[in-house]
Amino acid sequence: MTDPDAFWPLYRTEGNTWEMKKADASTKLRSFNFVLTLRSVLIFKRTPGRSIEDLSVEVAYPISGSFSFSVAQARRKTLDLRASGGETAATLARHEFDADFSWLSLYTQESSLKYLRMVNAPLHTRLSPASAGLPGDDADDISIVRENWIYNKAIEEAFTGSSARLLIRTGTFNVNGKMPSQDLSPWLRQTKRNSEISGWISPLKAISPLDILPNPVDEHMTTSLGASSATLAHASLNNDAKVSDPDLLVLGFQELDLSTEALLYATSTVREDAWVEAILAGLGERGILYEKLASKQLVGMLIVAIAKKSRLSCFSDIRFSTAGAGIMGIMGNKGATAIRMSYTPLAQEISASPTVLTFVNAHLAAFDEMIERRNFDFHDLSRRLVFDQTDELDSNSYANTASETSRRPVGLFESDVLFWMGDLNYRIDLADGDVRELLTSFPGPGNVPLLLKYDQLKMAIASGKAFAEFSEHAITHMPSYRYASNTSEDSLGYDRKRKPAWTDRILHMSAPSVSVTQRSYCSHPQITLSDHRPVSADFDLNISIVDKQRREIAASKLYRELWGVEHSSETPKIKLQPMKLDFGKIPCVYRFVTADAEQPICPQWLKIDPVVGLLRPGESSTITVTVFVDNSPASRLNLLPPRLDFTLILHTALGKDHFISVTGEYQYTCFANKLARLTRLPCPVRSMKSPNDQVPAQQLVNAPREIMRLINWLMTYVTDPIDLFNGLIEERICINIREEINSHPPSLEKNTLLDSLVDPVVPPYLHARCLQMTSRDEAFEVWISLTAFLHYMSLQKLSSQSSTNQAEMTERLVLLRDDSIGLYTPVSPIGKRKFLLHFVG
């Protein structure tokens, strides 16, 4: 090389990306000659929104022998990599080479870490930024859409028409360093059986010296098992409607070993073996149908997978991963263990495509104030949990399948279904006394939905700070932490020194190709050996059986058919018709784009499906445009002229833009308005011709007519307001009520009207001040609106209703509605209730 200073140095930077940066701003590229032996060619790509000097690796091509490199200037800049002998780069990249290029997977822009998140994101969000006249990177967009389309189309063509059902039971249990000393059957089995009713207990083997004989009622089952256990197990799988035995149990334990030695060196498997024996014993007479599939332990965290013997052959490519997040951010007292496996349904005469299942058992940072650390640990563990090749299978696992697997490390989200369970340690953002009062005011789960509004994990998911892509079934059980263990307890059994919380959670996310239905989500207070209560969740997976060979053939055929669209000399053309789109003679990728980079593709009240697509020659597509107005868009439309006009822009990749006009007429509504605006309406809102139809400020009324009419109607006709606001109203009646209140009085929908207001009746910034009021007089000084109605409520006190219940009913009127955008911290519902009691007590 004659001029080595002409090159920019290549650096490895944060985020596992490579960036090429100029060493000296005055350095210029000059002509040079060089001879260099190459092992690979890297194609760099500029990251949108970043400097041209910051590049990331997009594609890495392995090189074998001689090759030629040419740059062609056609319709756009392209790179043409050709191997000697006329072999194309696409074919070349598929060949096997002796060189190992797996290290490049950590530095490519499309990291496997984002696989599951990527497939769940809308396709148009993965395309380059584009607007009218500024199409973006059409060639790259074509590649993304084509890959997505081929993937789905190949699966569709290879679908056999049948599906397989896989029942999975997951569980999490922080055992607080205890050894098993209780029956675990409530945690492990969903329904009680006749053997349980009769009092029969399964033998505990090594855990118990007891040797209990089998129940005579089940002797015929034992006999059948002795003859052919596999046959009986398979028969039970085909009768899942009657027997809900899971095919796979995956259980996560935390604080399995609290000894100091466990942090310093690997301990024996005595505790693991004891808990596995307890699990099999807890399965009762069905335990003989199961066998341990795999397990992995990191200090006090243990994850165990137990499968039906008849299904063991369906599981393969079992891998493990661990990551510490405890002391100094690396010790294993906190962190996660994970198991990854491939499940291939049994199918005759075909080789079915496998479904990848990943299970994570995590233990995150404790204490109420450590929420940011818990959020950080989630993202850190998501990045660090990487599954290497299968070279460390547990010696007690079902089979070592290393010979069947790829040697490439894979990320946590490179799965079809991902389950995340454990002691996540998220707490409730309310005072300890308020939490206990809400739990005790209604026996059972009556106030659980109200408490969950202040759950840290729910808020982290809603804000996108952690677990944003995960789903969690509705929680109906009492908090699983912290129960008293040899300490002072309250009336519910919780430790008086620690606030109750739902620390033990089970979440999941799945690719669109797998249908996941959650059947249950509950805690098991019968098991009292720890200060936590175990939690379980049942999942029903419906897996489409896809012929693997047919899918590969279909994908190859479709790829050849659609390859080179971005390099075609023909311009894609489409013909718009009122009901469909007709495309021209070459494959075409289309997408809707914005008119301006700062605007959305369509207004909030309009929905388009699909937003992006691919069509082959001769095909047509129907695009559905739906209008839907709820409170959010209505609050804007109420301030605009009633005539709606919008232009949709349909862009064909490497082609023209097409413009579609959308028009409509909006009918004003009193819902989704501000109270101040309602006080200046000169007539029923339906009669308004313009949003500027308002009376002068000096003529405004003291309170909105719509609300006052509601109050007058309630005070005149309603005898039991408790039933009125607690009952459900049919949708047809709701529609009629809304039309009535928009046109002329009266209406029953006071609750819906107040909830639709842009600003709550009591502004959020006054909520904290309201809670500081200690007397009725102070309360009226802070809040004077609607006092007539609240006074009416105080006069309607019935013998069967306490003032507390009246306050709860009044609270349902959303007078103290929380701030929906998060500018103000939600205040305690107990404080709201006390404030309302000043009016109804």
Automatic annotation (TrEMBL):
One of its GO terms (molecular function) is phosphatidylinositol-4,5-bisphosphate 5-phosphatase activity. It comes from the Eukaryota. Residues 164-547 form the Inositol polyphosphate-related phosphatase domain. One of its GO terms (biological process) is phosphatidylinositol dephosphorylation. Transmembrane segments: none annotated. Pfam families: Exo_endo_phos2, OCRL-like_ASH. This is DNase I-like protein.
